[in-house]
Amino acid sequence: MSKSVKNNPLALSKKEMQAVGYQVIDTLIEHLEGMENLKIHAQKSPAELNKLLGGPIPEKGQDPLALVEQAKKDVFGNVLHVDHPRFYAFIPSPGNFMGVMADTLAKGFNVFNGHWLAGSGSAAIERITIDWLKDICKFPEKGGGLFLSGGSMANLSAIATARKIKLKDEGKRGVVYYSNQTHSSLAKGLKVLGIGEKYRRPLPTDKHLKIDIKALEKAIKRDLKKGLTPFCIVGNAGTTNAGVVDPLKKMSAIAKKYNCWFHIDGAYGAAAMLTKTGKKALRGIETADSLTLDPHKWWFQPMEMGCLLVKDSQHLKTTFQVSAEYLEDTKAKGLEEINYYDHGIQLTRSFRALKLYFSLKTFGLKAYKKAIQKGMDMADYTEKLLRQQKDWQIITPSQLGILNFVYAPKGATLAQIDTGSQAIAKKVMHDGYAMMTTTKIDGLTVLRMCPIHPGLTKKDIRKTMDKLVQFAGEVSL
Ligand SMILES: Cc1ncc(COP(=O)(O)O)c(C=O)c1O
């Protein structure tokens, strides 16, 4: 036993660490290898879980191996498997093993990735990885960005930056514009930043669920007349509801005309820049002043990993940099030595970049392109199968890997279709073979699928369809 272990009440011996470590890895591999036969949805009541996991803090410690074993059964046995190939709900999080191992290493070394003094190696990896993403999204050399916990933090940080750059600190009454299909994290960010509903303009969309561009300009003109200051327009590069891309180039032109910041939320959809079809759909993404992009979504990373890219990295510093006497020694020398605490809210921040770096290095861009294209192809395939069924109707076609549909047998009313969607989604969840949820499109409850797991097969989709047909038959409309 080493001296440090002997003197440390919170240390395990080498042998114990190895035993726990191997058990953890074995558990993970067992989970990944056994995925096919897992019931996707598992849940217990709060009372049941409290009984299994609660109780007072033990005065004396217990065997860590037994603890891992219990977590395997009672904790991980009661979570929704968002990494399952047939998890089609929300935005799936497929993850990948190299990302998990990178996270494990980063945590094991407990890297402080806030400034260059503490983590030059980690900051270098973050800068290199951010540069790769900038290249993919056609952002300029002087652009920058950083990794954050997720899309919500990226959207919030973008609006904070927009406000700082466009409104300075002049206390102007600034207004933000976006379509009513924009993810709720934007409204949450605005709320946190103190931008009240009076200064938010969720705008109508056209029949394709893209922002109504005329309504956007009209709203800006109306606000200018009222003495307000339009300062930020937010576009969608893949809405959560339907994978819709707003007319980004037109929005960017309006942003320029009215001196507004143009932010794009590509938390989910920006990954499609790696494919030919995606690039076409996302035309104009490069016109953004800032872009949200989440590696823990369609870049197959374990949570938590979001990213904010900006056209000019100085804008982040202008927004977030403050000084403190106890941080004087950490001041960076030259532009190359990045202190990421100057680029965002967090001072103490983890080393998120390693997981994306390891994943891209291990599998290569070619495999990534294939994996993302496959997601879009699977959504196309699902749409094709649904169109062949006589009682099903496509509500929004396959776009960036998302589609919406309903069970609509002849003579069914809208109210019946609505409750039918809810009932079918519940049956899918309880059955456990697959998982999908509902959303509302133009007020109608629809079934929504996002089949983007790279391990998904056409056979999986066909069997999911068989289940849908079976459950629809059991629902009396
Ligand atoms: C388009 C979009 N933006 C933002 C978010 C919020 O991201 P997060 O959940 O990582 O905070 C989501 C989440 O699904 C999203 O789909």
How would you describe the overall organization of this protein?
- This protein is an alpha/beta fold and 477 residues long.
- It has helices at residues 3-6, 14-33, 46-53, 64-75, 97-108, 120-136, 151-167, 184-192, 213-225, 248-257, 276-281, 313-320, 353-388, 414-431, 458-474; strands at 144-148, 174-179, 200-203, 229-236, 261-265, 290-293, 306-310, 392-399, 402-407, 437-441, 444-449.
- The chain has 2 domains: 112-350, Aspartate Aminotransferase, domain 2 (3-Layer(aba) Sandwich); 362-474, Aspartate Aminotransferase, domain 1 (Alpha-Beta Complex).
- The strands form 2 sheets. Strands 1-7-6-5-4-2-3 form a 7-stranded mixed beta sheet, with helices on both faces.
- β10 (437-441) and β11 (444-449) form a beta hairpin.
- The longest helix is centred in the last third of the chain and has 36 residues, at 353-388.
- The mean pLDDT is 96.
- Pyridoxal-5'-phosphate (PLP) binds next to α7.
- Residues 91, 150-152, 155, 183, 185, 240, 265, 267-268, 294, 306 line the site of pyridoxal-5'-phosphate.
Brief write-up:
It is built from 15 helices and eleven strands.
